[in-house]
Amino acid sequence: MLCTTPGAWLNFNVVLHAVVLAAVLAAPEGNRETAERLFTTAEQEEHDLDLTAALEHYDASIASDPSNRWALRASARARFLRARSEGAFGPLVRLERVRRDPEAQRDAATIDALAHDLEAFPPGEVRTEARMFVAEAYATRLGRASAAEHELARLLDEAEGDPPLRAQAATRAVDMAMTRGDVAAAKHAAAQVAKNDPVLGERVSRWARRRIIERGAAALLALFVIIGGASALRRVRSLERAELSAFVPRAIVVCAYLAIVAVMLANAYERGNALPFVLVPACLLPIAMVARAWALVGAPSRGARIARATFSAAAVLAAAFLVLDRVDVRYLESFGL
User: Fold this and answer.
1) C-alpha–C-alpha distance, residues 276 and 246, integer Å
2) Average pLDDT, stretch 118-129?
């Protein structure tokens, strides 16, 4: 039997590699020189946007000598051009002329003209790439968010397109919708790429839940201030004012202590943003003052005390949520929000 021992198998591999290397070295020198010359010509033609000739010469370079040093790059460039050859390369040339000109990218008239022209492009990679390019130009260089969102929506409606590019467009559209607070638009953009990027949909769902909680937290804080604060201001007497004044310094000390300890813990373990741990105790102080004033003038029954304590605790949680949501949402995400 052939190669029945490890030594025989090793010898067989050595012979095989030697044969392959000999075949490569045996390639005629003229073919190798021709292949490299064709590759250089193709690169120059691609630079000059003569893309039909460039594709032909990339293919000819590989055919002339598949083992030449530029064969892999020639193959990659040929695949790139062949995938974007719709319309006899006319759309790609149109896009590249703008994409290669930094001044044109900042000119609104040029971008508007490209946005108009791409509507006539055949379906394919170039049209989706052109939409993404126009959308980024509108969003980042021209400050036209609504126009950018329109192009991103059109891109996501395309039946064809590179999945990573579609995922990038969906993420951009979601970010812009979230900035506007548009839950429906964010969900629609995420749904367009749900099969390839389910994480984006989960992110939007968490953000939508936080928007609901945000409205509830703001409403709860408003009710706390209206009910508790108004009751205290209306009914507080001089004695209660004195007790409240004595309570304020103690509350400040407690809040300052909480802030210092929280910042130390955050710096020791999280190495993240310590600002929320300063703002939450700062928000706690006015809530504690309202709760204390309300307790001084409120009904003394056990049920009333429990209701006030529960309402005050809910107000603290609502304030903490709003601070974290605005300053550093990562802490909320760690709780699944």
Assistant:
1) 28
2) 92
CA 292 to chain centre: 44
Domain locations along the chain: 28-83, 88-196, 213-333
| CATH topology (fold) of 88-196 | 1.25.40
On the question of pLDDT at 337 being above 50, the answer is yes
Residues 6+ apart with CB under 8 A from 205: 187
Q: Which of the residue ranges 21-30, 92-101, 193-202, 282-291 would you say has the lowest mean pLDDT? A: 21-30
Instruction: Give me the long-range contacts of 6-11 (CB less than 8 A, separation at least 24).
Output: none
- How many secondary structure helices (H) and strands (E) does the chain include? 17, 0
Kindly give, in sequence order, each residue whose CB lies less than 8 Å from that of residue 32, ignoring residues fewer than 6 positions away: 65, 67, 68
Identify residue 19 by its one-letter amino acid code.
Answer: V
Measure the CA–CA gap between 177 and 163, rounded to whole angstroms: 21
Distance from C-alpha of 291 to C-alpha of 228, rounded to nearest angstrom: 7
Sequence-separated (6 or more) residues with CB below 8 Å from residue 232? 290, 293, 294, 296, 297
Rounded mean pLDDT, 173-195: 88
- Is 0.85 topped by the overall pTM? no
Residue 27 tokens read as: 């390639």
In this predicted model, what pLDDT tens digit does every residue of 22-70 receive, in sequence order? Answer: 444 454 555 888 989 999 999 999 999 999 999 999 999 999 999 888 9
304 or 80, which is more confident?
A: 80
> b vs e for 48-63, b when ≥16 Cβ sit within 10 Å of the residue's Cβ?
eebbeebbbbbbbbbe
- Whether 135 has a pLDDT exceeding 70, the answer reads yes
